Amino acid sequence: MTQESATVTRVEFDMEWPPGHVAMYVLDGAETILFDGGVPPERVDGASFAERSGYALDEIDHVFLTHPHPDHIGHLRAVVAAGDPVVHAPLTASDRLRRPPEVVAERTRQTIAASGADAETQATMREEERSIRDRIRRDLPLDAVDDWVVDDQRVTVGNRTVDAVWTPGH
Question: pTM score, two decimals?
Answer without folding.
Answer: 0.85
